[in-house]
């Protein structure tokens, strides 16, 4: 299967500023599937709806006039309400033929999209109250009593469980007259299952046993109740997290569109059909908690296509950013088109704790939620995955409790400690292995501070920290008969700090749609350990606890519904602006929201901050993004007028893309609630424009601006002009300019963050975002400093040993994004060739799984040697050392004399032991990949004049996104002195030295 692409406030307002160094070009997405297969499902997208498409004639004409045999039987879906197109079974050649037609925007294969899988609303209220006191003109008790009954939220998910108490219609008025949708039943879902709360339901899934809107997965029921569930007193999960479960907009109506099957798969053709129907049905907000598995172009992404036409019809689309932060491919947020409100996930101030007690009464802090009835005295045998390995099984597989790696006799009746350090396994899979082999419980050690609840019933599944895992291992190794138990789960309230960015929440940094033009995600919301409704016949509980950006997304959808109910005439962009400019960037300690590793979060991780409840209801000033902004954005992305005219129904008859639209940064001037300035390295200053609308209660209002950049950034100056905006009854819209100036080249390598705040005197406190982030950020670690001080110059008389350790955070931003995309583009082109091709490649043949690693290593080299050109580097020059022992052998031989010098001046541990501990502290060696860089002698920047030998190693941790560079070399003092004494140049001296040596 192949893909085809035709190229032809209120009184307070905080605005994020993002300055990066390079313009990142948008790469074409590679074909997703194998070619040569016939009669696969393809989507033919023909743009905005027309009279012909509304009658279905358009699709019929395209199929019949393209000489497609038996075409009537091959059309699966027709899109004819808000946009036009169809899904049909086509061969590859037929799809290519249709793609050439002038009325066709794009043809692409049907793809799989995946789901992003009580207390949260109270926590948001507390955070809202503590953030901006002057906003609280609306009492807490009135937030949920606003007239939200006329707002309709469309939930695209796995369906809905209509009997859940969260969807009762007690006290609700008649269904809004604007509703044009239906409640379509099935074998286990009848039209009478709908009511004045659940006003519509449709099913699009035809595979599997269920072909009705009923939710047998649970995900759709869970997210629908978060967004708009009715209050349910006494809600809990096995008696935990007891309270009143309610949604953000409890009076809003729900329309459920089942687009995902019970296995979490959501097909592109189905998603587009749901968009087409929902727009015609009359929903106000569409909430989407799933997304693509890859970066794809706007005209081939069903969520972006559907959302574009929804926004044109006045419907706000809220999408989850994804749970891929720790994944290798792709680790970045999706659902990032500028017309989508993209939501990341944060924690709340409630923690579920299930402690592990070892035989010596030592208590290990554990997360997770379980209902198992284990004795509280440690009597259950305890073992480690590697100790339970089958004969001949891989030790790594056993560590991670992989299927077929463990011996059932060594697991039965025991609590098993496993590692969570392999991409191909998950705690859920490990639990199935332990359960199948008769184990009593699973403990899995994690690298991350956050211990999100891992819900299990009969067999506990308990996460612990990596360091605590070391304590458990030490206990097992030092006891002949180690035992343990798992204590009952308890709730830890008022947990601090909260919120934190969830460890799984996908950050910004990808390149989809010129993604670097906008800060994404736009906002964050609670998405960890969220209690919500659940299909009650699949568990003894009517509520369940889940985590994911899937849960964060409906939180924002619910607040958006409240804003829509208060301001029914507002556009999607106005609602989006109100949510973003009132977001809270601080936690319950009044400090900036942090990431899961404790670092201050930046906008690429948390957008404008955490959504608040009352702030968006009285924003004062808003940014309205017009249709013209999106059209110019499409011009900027390389779409020509003919193609844009097919896509947008709002295009003026005389419109033409500006002649320099492909190079001019139009996106920076899009009237977006955040500012991103790119391609900044070539200019001393850059100016962008914004327009704000006064929607506050006071028609006569004056706002004064203040600008603040990150405290560590002295090289970037941001100025606003004018600094005061005076609104009158007849002047509700005013513009201003932001000018950015830099005085050095320091900004070339990264991002600078800041904020501009507009206030009218009623606000007592401002909360600007003060963050500074470099692309490949240099990390300072004291353990490395001690070794560096020693290795700066170890003089051995005739020779000098020199070494250097440097740690970097491998975050893709700024200049690195352009370099990365350039390298990836060349790599991807080459990957499409056979391994024996004669075509030149900058990296030679490279497996797909390794290409991002190569890019990180190259980026690290560029930062170490900024003046050196590595464009000719080949992949084979980076050798993957299999184990630490491989590195140790080289170190022991070549650093033998330096190690002796170390022992003479440092008592205790050897140099290698100190090095191991330092590296382990920074990058956790147990899960590191070790690479050696083997450059040609005449192309190795680490070879200094007089060098006898040189080595360069990289210790790379994928999950932590960190890399440590360790380079060490030996220089001949006598050789250089002798040659230079004879008046020989350094270059000639190098030649003489190396010519006379066998290396």
UniProtKB/TrEMBL annotation:
| Protein name as annotated | OLC1v1032139C1
Provide the leader sequence positions. Answer: 1-31
The answer on whether this UniProt entry bears the keyword Amino-acid biosynthesis reads no
| Keyword Lyase part of the UniProt annotation | no
According to the entry, every stretch annotated as the Inhibitor I9 domain falls at 41-116
The similarity annotation says:
Belongs to the peptidase S8 family.
A GO BP entry = proteolysis
Q: Which parts of the sequence belong to the Subtilisin-like protease fibronectin type-III domain? A: 669-762
Instruction: Provide any one GO MF term from the record.
Output: serine-type endopeptidase activity
């Amino acid at each position: 299967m192949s893909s085809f692409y035709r190229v032809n406030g209120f009184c307070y307002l905080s605005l994020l500023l993002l300055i990066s160094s390079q313009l990142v070009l948008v790469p074409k997405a590679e074909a997703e599937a194998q070619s040569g297969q016939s009669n696969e499902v393809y989507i033919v997208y023909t743009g905005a709806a027309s009279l012909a498409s509304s009658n279905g004639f358009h699709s019929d004409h395209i199929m019949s006039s393209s000489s497609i045999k038996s075409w009537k039987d091959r059309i699966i879906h027709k899109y004819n309400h808000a946009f036009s197109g169809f899904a049909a079974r086509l061969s590859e050649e037929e799809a290519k033929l249709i793609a050439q037609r002038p009325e066709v925007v794009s043809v692409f294969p049907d793809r799989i999209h995946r789901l992003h899988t009580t207390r949260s609303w109270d926590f948001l209220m507390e955070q809202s109250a503590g953030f901006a006191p002057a906003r609280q003109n609306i009492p807490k008790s009135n937030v949920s009593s606003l007239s939200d009954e006329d707002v309709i939220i469309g939930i695209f998910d796995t369906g809905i469980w209509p009997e859940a108490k969260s969807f009762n219609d007690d006290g609700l008025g008649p269904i809004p007259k604007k509703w044009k949708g239906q409640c379509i039943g099935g074998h286990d879902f009848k039209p009478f299952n709908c009511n004045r709360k659940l006003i519509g339901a449709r099913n699009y899934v035809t595979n599997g046993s269920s072909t009705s809107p009923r939710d047998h997965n649970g995900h759709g029921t869970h997210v629908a109740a978060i967004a708009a569930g009715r209050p349910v007193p006494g809600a809990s999960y096995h008696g935990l997290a007891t309270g009143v479960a309610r949604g953000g907009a409890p009076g809003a109506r729900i329309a459920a569109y089942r687009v995902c099957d019970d296995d979490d798969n959501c097909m592109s053709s189905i998603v587009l059909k749901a968009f087409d129907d929902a727009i015609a049905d009359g929903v106000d907000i569409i909430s989407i908690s799933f997304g693509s598995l890859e970066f794809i172009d706007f005209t081939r992404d069903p969520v972006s296509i559907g959302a574009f036409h929804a926004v044109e019809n006045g419907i706000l689309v809220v999408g989850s950013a994804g749970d891929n932060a720790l994944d290798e491919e792709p680790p970045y947020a999706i659902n990032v088109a500028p017309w989508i409100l993209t939501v990341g996930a944060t924690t709340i101030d409630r923690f579920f704790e299930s402690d592990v007690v070892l035989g010596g009464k030592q208590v290990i802090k554990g997360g997770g939620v379980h209902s198992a009835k284990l004795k509280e005295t440690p009597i259950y045998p305890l073992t480690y995955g590697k100790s339970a390995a089958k004969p001949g099984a891989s030790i790594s597989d056993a560590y991670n409790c992989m299927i077929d790696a463990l011996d059932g006799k060594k697991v039965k009746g025991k609590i098993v400690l496993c590692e969570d350090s392999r991409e191909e396994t998950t705690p859920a899979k490990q639990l199935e292995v332990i359960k199948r082999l008769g184990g009593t419980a699973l403990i899995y050690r994690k690298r991350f501070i956050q211990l999100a609840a891992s819900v299990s019933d009969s067999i506990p599944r308990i996460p612990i920290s990596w360091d605590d895992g070391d304590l458990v291992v030490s206990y097992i190794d030092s006891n002949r008969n180690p035992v343990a138990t798992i204590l009952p789960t308890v709730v830890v309230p008022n947990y601090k700090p909260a919120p934190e960015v969830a460890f799984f929440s996908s950050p910004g940094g990808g390149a989809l749609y010129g993604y670097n033009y906008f800060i994404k995600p736009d906002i964050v919301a609670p998405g960890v350990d969220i209690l919500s409704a659940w299909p009650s016949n699949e568990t003894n509980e009517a509520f369940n606890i889940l985590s994911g950006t899937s849960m964060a997304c409906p939180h924002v959808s619910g607040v958006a519904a409240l804003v829509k109910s208060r301001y029914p005439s507002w556009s999607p962009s106005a609602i989006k602006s109100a949510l973003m400019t009132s977001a809270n960037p601080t936690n319950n300690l009044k400090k900036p929201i942090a990431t899961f590793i404790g670092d201050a979060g930046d906008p690429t991780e948390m957008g404008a901050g955490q959504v608040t409840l009352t702030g968006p209801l009285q924003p004062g000033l808003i940014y309205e993004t017009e249709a013209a902004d999106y059209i110019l954005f499409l011009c900027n992305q390389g779409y020509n007028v003919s193609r844009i005219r097919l896509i947008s129904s709002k295009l003026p008859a005389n419109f033409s893309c500006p002649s320099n639209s492909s190079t001019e940064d139009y996106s920076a001037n899009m009237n977006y609630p955040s500012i991103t300035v790119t391609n900044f390295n070539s200019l001393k200053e850059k100016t962008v424009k914004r327009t704000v609308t006064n929607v506050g209660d006071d028609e006569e209002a004056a706002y004064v601006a203040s600008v603040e950049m990150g405290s560590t950034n002295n090289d970037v100056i941001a100025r606003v002009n004018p600094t005061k905006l005076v609104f009158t009854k007849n002047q509700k819209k005013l513009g201003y300019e932001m000018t950015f100036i830099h005085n050095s080249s320091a900004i070339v390598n990264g991002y600078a963050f800041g904020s501009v705040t507009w206030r009218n005197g009623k606000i007592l406190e401002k909360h600007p975002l003060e963050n500074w982030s470099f692309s490949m950020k240099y990390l300072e670690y004291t353990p490395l400093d001690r070794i560096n001080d020693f290795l700066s110059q170890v003089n051995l008389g005739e020779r000098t040993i020199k070494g250097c350790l440097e740690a970097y955070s491998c975050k893709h931003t700024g200049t690195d994004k352009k370099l990365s995309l350039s390298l990836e583009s060349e790599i991807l082109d080459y990957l499409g060739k056979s391994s024996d091709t004669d075509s030149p490649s900058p990296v030679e043949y490279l497996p797909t799984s390794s290409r991002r690693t190569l890019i990180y290593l190259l980026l690290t080299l560029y930062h170490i040697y900024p003046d050196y050109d590595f464009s000719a580097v080949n992949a084979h020059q980076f050798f993957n050392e299999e184990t630490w022992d491989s590195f140790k052998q080289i170190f022991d031989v070549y650093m033998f004399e330096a190690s002796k010098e170390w022992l003479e001046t440092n008592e205790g541990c050897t140099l290698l032991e100190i090095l191991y501990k330092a590296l382990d502290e920074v990058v956790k060696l147990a899960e590191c990949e070790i690479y050696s860089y083997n450059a040609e002698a005449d192309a190795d920047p680490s070879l200094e004049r007089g060098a006898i030998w040189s080595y360069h190693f990289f210790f790379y941790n994928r999950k932590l996104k960190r890399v440590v560079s360790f380079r060490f070399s030996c220089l001949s003092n006598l050789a250089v002195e002798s040659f230079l004494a004879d008046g020989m140049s350094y270059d000639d001296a190098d030649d003489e030295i190396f010519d006379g040596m066998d290396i």
